[in-house]
Write a structure and sequence with these properties.
Strand order of the largest sheet: 7-6-5-8-9-10
Distance between the termini: 33 Å
Number of helices: 8
Number of domains: 1
Order of helices and strands: HEEEEHEHEEEHEHEHHH
Radius of gyration: 18 Å
Helix content: 40-55%
Strand content: 15-25%
Shape: globular
Mean pLDDT: 91
CATH topology: Rossmann fold
CATH class: Alpha Beta
CATH architecture: 3-Layer(aba) Sandwich
Largest sheet: 6 strands, mixed
């Protein structure tokens, strides 16, 4: 498939996914009391991907878009196993695995302390070509944590997929690339803001504040008491 066609399909999917997230009210805005992301960044906006679980038609369309993008960028025959990251990635991994008719497992944030293969639940075998699935990422650090555990258990892991990628924090893609991970995401804040402008979601003042955050997330985070580029993120 030609690269320009792939880019066009990716953009169309990203805008559709953004519109769905807005329709189910998974997009939250609170500039006066910024959200503290698990990575330590302060943000005026927050995506709650867990809301997708509640809406069957929305999740069905999002999973269809997700699988299509995964197949475009990785290829169906290039995968043996879908793994969800504890906890938010588990339902999405299950739906994607079901759609692709592939085995599914999940990886914990830390070993439970007993049993065989205490950090990973599932029959992971040596050299299984694995896709790590989570709901979203900011700076990418938690993906590396999960990837290390999976590789230690014998997985062959080159890709991670998320429904939503913030797409604004510096160094995220480079951090993942250095860890041997290629990030595939369905949509980002840029598509969310594009749909917000098209369909008049939020006030113009609110949209302008979001744009300030997207233009300089480090400065916005520091100004509102969050971490900065220099202090470095911990986990996402």
């Amino acid at each position: 498939m030609a690269s320009d066609m792939i880019s066009s399909l990716d953009k169309e999917a990203a805008l559709t996914a953004a519109r769905i997230l807005l329709e189910i009210k998974a997009v939250n805005f609170r500039a006066s009391e910024p959200y503290t992301l698990t990575s330590g960044w302060k943000s005026p906006v927050y995506i709650d991907c867990r809301k997708i679980i509640f809406y069957p038609r929305a999740r069905a369309e999002l999973m269809k878009l997700a699988v299509e993008k995964i197949c475009r960028h990785i290829g169906y025959e290039s995968l043996d196993l879908i793994v969800g990251g504890e906890t938010a990635g588990i339902p999405f991994a299950a739906w994607i695995a079901d759609y692709l008719n592939l085995p599914m497992a999940y990886v914990r944030k830390k070993p439970k302390g007993f049993g065989r293969n205490a950090q990973i639940e599932g029959d992971l075998k040596e050299n299984m070509k694995t896709l790590l699935v989570e709901d979203l990422t900011t700076d990418g650090a938690s993906k590396i944590h999960f990837a290390n555990a999976l590789r230690k258990a014998g997985a062959e892991l080159a890709h991670t997929f998320v429904i939503f990628y913030y797409g604004v924090f510096p160094g995220a893609l480079e951090t993942l690339k250095d860890a041997g991970l290629n990030l595939i995401s369905l949509t980002t804040w840029h598509e969310i803001l594009e749909i917000c402008k098209q369909d008049s979601y939020f006030s113009e003042e609110d949209r302008n504040e979001v744009q300030k955050f997207l233009d300089n997330p480090c400065e916005w985070s520091e100004k509102h008491g969050g971490i900065t580029k220099s202090s470095g993120p911990t986990v996402s």
